[in-house]
Each structure stands twice: as structure tokens, then as C-alpha cells.
Recover the amino acids of this structure.
């Protein structure tokens, strides 16, 4: 599945300045894994050393926080848009 | 009595359990800024900025404008409601529910910006609004307004000096607009030129320490003064948030995320000392973050 991940300004320097990255994945977790695999410097910003999503990092599928869906197992379909938002200014969009 | 008269003179409390084992000659104190009428340290900057603006005159029909990630906006909102002044605030759309509701409760007009661009996106949008219609707006610009650090030079610093009976040796605070850190440093150094002043920033551009800025990757505030910091510390998010949680459980102090970073910095400094009086500042209370699940689970 072709899925677009929107990258916040604060992380763009780790993905060559891009504001979005296209990945091929069927779940939100797999999409993040592919993103990190293509841009390894992102790993420490998104995941804990144990591999969990850091607590303040919110990932949205469309307008829904994946924590309120099926977390990293949230299924994706072609054309879905994931957005990585720090909860720095809160979690409610 | 006006709300303006209630700003400042916040409590300074000595921390005990959360500081762990320190040398017997070391004390750690924290200024509780959640005690301000608007619930945060930003009441200080907002009240000075507004007083300064009023003294210079407000043209009829102009609307006050600024960007904020929340607390400054709430402080402006409260004070502008008392003054009967119209206020528009630009803030990132992912500002939490409490912030948006408090701002609307004070009658503030909100302009929401792209969450992906953070607080710098809100700054740029406010600047663009002013450039497009310069006669419509009075841009308060907390990041460039000298009244912001002056509020702390004249207020916060004097209070700390009095409350410690002139014993403060180290001042540790987080950097956001940098007004609190720069102004308090200036004020305390008038009394104690050898004050050690330690600035705490998040350890990277992507962090969970709401209210703080990672200056190397952010728009640098014009009020920032390179000469203020004796030393810089880089706070990691998770240990700072854990300290924030411990402040509630071990000291009875319910505070926001940036207070965890301030305490993290204060303890880094205190652990190196044989003797000294370390003062830090907790910018706001924890009630303002109740909807942010990750802070409480």
C-alpha cells in the first residue's frame, strides 16, 4: 500500500528536508519502521531504546490518533496519510 | 485592586524528597509560578508588555496580536478581558483542549496554525498577518519585547533575592521565549555578580517538554542574551517527565512538563556542589495538562 507520512518541521532535517515521505506498508507500525529504515537518524526521536513509540509522539491516521485505533497494528489502505505530531502543544487536534 | 496587582510574589518552596542525596550544604528551591492569577509565569511578561503598550498608546480600532503555545495567550486573555481590549492569538492547532477552552473563556479570538510547524509556525503566521495589514494589528511580540525580560529583572529576581535572604548562588531555568531566564539572571547579577546561571533546553528539536525551545533548531528570540548563561544543559524528555510526575507524588507539587525539565537541570547542578543555594522556577501547574494522556498514565 502506498502511504504518505507527513513529517513535522522539527524532524525534516533527518529526512533530507522533505515535508512528506512515501512508504509501502499495511499497518501504521510497519509504515514507521520503513520510514526509520530509510532514515535511521529518526529512530532515536520516534522510538525508545526498547522500540516503543515515545510517549509524547502522536501518530494520526487522517484525523484519528492511532492510540485510539489499533495502535501500531492500525491497518492502512492505499492513499492513507499518517501524520507525526509531537504532543509538545497538546494531543487534541 | 486590579488583576495586574495580583501578578508575582509567588511562593518559593524548598524541595526535600525528590532531590535525593545531596551534600548537606546544598539546598534546592523552586518558585511556584502556577500561583499567579492566570496560572503561569507568563502573567509576569504579559502584564509588563500590556502596561508598556498602554503607556505608549493604543490606536482606536487596533486589535492586539501575538503568537503563543498557550500560557502567554491565557495571561493576555485574562488581562485584556479586565482592560476591555480586543485580542487575537495565533497558536498551533494541536494546542490542548484546556488551552483552547481557557482562551475562548476569556473571549480571545483564535487563529490556529499547522501543528506540524509548532510554535515557530505560529510566530511566522502572526508576522505575516501584521505584514499584510499593519494598521489593523498591534503586534505584542513576546519573543522580541524588552518588557518580557524586564518583568523578571524587576519582579522574579527581586523576589528570589528577598525570599532567599540574598543566599541564592545558582539560578537554573528553562528557555522558551528566554524572558524568564535572561531577565531573572540580569536582576540577580545586580546583587550577586558571581551568580551561576544555568539555561536548560530540550536535548533535541523534537521533544515533549511543552513550553521550552531547542534554540539551535528554532527561531532565536530577539530578547535572548548570549551573555546570560554561565552554562547550558540539555534536558532529555523522558527523565524530565518522570521528575515532573515525582514532584506530584513526593512533594505534593502538581506542575507542567517544563517544570520537570527545570528540576532535572537544578538537580544536575546541585549534585556537583558541596554547598550552595540552587533556585529554579516551575512555570505552571499540572491541571492545564490533564487531557494529555501520556503525562498521567
Amino acid at each position: 500500500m502506498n502511504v504518505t507520512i507527513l513529517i513535522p518541521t522539527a524532524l525534516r532535517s533527518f529526512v533530507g528536508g522533505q515535508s512528506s515521505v512515501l512508504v509501502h506498508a499495511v499497518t501504521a507500525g510497519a509504515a514507521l519502521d520503513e520510514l526509520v529504515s530509510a532514515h535511521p537518524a529518526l529512530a532515536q526521536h520516534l522510538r525508545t531504546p526498547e522500540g516503543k513509540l515515545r510517549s509524547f509522539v502522536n501518530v494520526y491516521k487522517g484525523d484519528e490518533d492511532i492510540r485510539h485505533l489499533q495502535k501500531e497494528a492500525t491497518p492502512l489502505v492505499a492513499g492513507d496519510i499518517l501524520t507525526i505530531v509531537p504532543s509538545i502543544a497538546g494531543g487534541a487536534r | 485592586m486590579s488583576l495586574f496587582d495580583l501578578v508575582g510574589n509567588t511562593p518559593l518552596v524548598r524541595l526535600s524528597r525528590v532531590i535525593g542525596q545531596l551534600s548537606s550544604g546544598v539546598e534546592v528551591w523552586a518558585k511556584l509560578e502556577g500561583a499567579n492569577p492566570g496560572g503561569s509565569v507568563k502573567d509576569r511578561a504579559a502584564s509588563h508588555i500590556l502596561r508598556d503598550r498602554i503607556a505608549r498608546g493604543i490606536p482606536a480600532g487596533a486589535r492586539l496580536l501575538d503568537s503563543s503555545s498557550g500560557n502567554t495567550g491565557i495571561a493576555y486573555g485574562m488581562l485584556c478581558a479586565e482592560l476591555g481590549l480586543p485580542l487575537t492569538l495565533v497558536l498551533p492547532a494541536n494546542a490542548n483542549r484546556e488551552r483552547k477552552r481557557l482562551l475562548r473563556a476569556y473571549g480571545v479570538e483564535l487563529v490556529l496554525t499547522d501543528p506540524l510547524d509548532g510554535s515557530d509556525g505560529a510566530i511566522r503566521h502572526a508576522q505575516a498577518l501584521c505584514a499584510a495589514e499593519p494598521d489593523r494589528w498591534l503586534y505584542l511580540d513576546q519573543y522580541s519585547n524588552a518588557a518580557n525580560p524586564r518583568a523578571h529583572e524587576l519582579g522574579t529576581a527581586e523576589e528570589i533575592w528577598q525570599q532567599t535572604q540574598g543566599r541564592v548562588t545558582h539560578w537554573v531555568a528553562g528557555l522558551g521565549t528566554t524572558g524568564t531566564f535572561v531577565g531573572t539572571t540580569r536582576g540577580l547579577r545586580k546583587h550577586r555578580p558571581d551568580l551561576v546561571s544555568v539555561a536548560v533546553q530540550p536535548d533535541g528539536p523534537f521533544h515533549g517538554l511543552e513550553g521550552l525551545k531547542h534554540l539551535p533548531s528554532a527561531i532565536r528570540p530577539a530578547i535572548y542574551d548570549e551573555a546570560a548563561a554561565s552554562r547550558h544543559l540539555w534536558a532529555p524528555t523522558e527523565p524530565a517527565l518522570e521528575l515532573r510526575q515525582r514532584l506530584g507524588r513526593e512533594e505534593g507539587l502538581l506542575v507542567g512538563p517544563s517544570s520537570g525539565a527545570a528540576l532535572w537541570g537544578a538537580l544536575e547542578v546541585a549534585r556537583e556542589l558541596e554547598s550552595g543555594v540552587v533556585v529554579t522556577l516551575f512555570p505552571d501547574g499540572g491541571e492545564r495538562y490533564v487531557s494529555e494522556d501520556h503525562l498521567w498514565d
Remarks:
- The CA atoms of residues 60 and 83 of chain A lie 5 Å apart.
- The longest strand of chain A covers residues 81-86.
